[in-house]
Write a structure and sequence with these properties.
The protein is mainly alpha-helical and 121 residues long. The chain has two domains: 44 residues, no CATH class; 58 residues, no CATH class. Helices cover 42% and strands 10% of the residues. The strands form two sheets. Strands 1-2-3 form a three-stranded antiparallel sheet. Strand 4 and strand 5 form a beta hairpin. It is elongated. It starts with a strand and ends in a 12-residue tail after the last helix.
């Protein structure tokens, strides 16, 4: 993911929106407005595979799952990030249901539009 855009005579910071026409800023990929060396912000494919562990309350975890389920209903949400989000929500759902099996039905129902509010009307 890049955080800058190079033009013929300037560098545009995609973080703050400022542009610099300074040759040193362009060469070093630097934004003087937000004091960012853009090349140091680049994340490699290997870094993106770094596992992350967090602890959240059950209510927050359920809210995240529900929001991902809702986002999955959008017809334009078809890219790779959509699949990754769904995989994440499913993994989170499995972790919850392993500890609290009585939540399995309601969490799984969120993936099925037949259980949407008002779907029986």
């Amino acid at each position: 993911m890049t955080t800058y855009k190079l033009h013929n005579d300037n560098i545009e910071c995609l973080i703050c929106g400022s542009k610099s026409y300074n040759a040193n800023d362009i060469e070093k990929r630097y934004c003087g407005h937000c004091h960012t060396f853009h090349d140091s912000m680049t994340v490699t494919a290997e870094e993106l595979k770094t596992p992350v562990q967090i602890e959240v309350d059950l209510a927050i975890a359920i809210a995240v799952i529900a929001n991902i389920q809702l986002a999955q209903r959008h017809p334009g949400n078809t890219g790779a990030a959509s699949k990754q989000a769904q995989d994440f929500a499913r993994a989170l759902q499995n972790a919850i249901c392993t500890r609290i099996p009585k939540l399995a039905f309601v969490l799984e129902a969120g993936w099925n539009s037949e259980y949407d509010y008002g779907s029986n009307e």
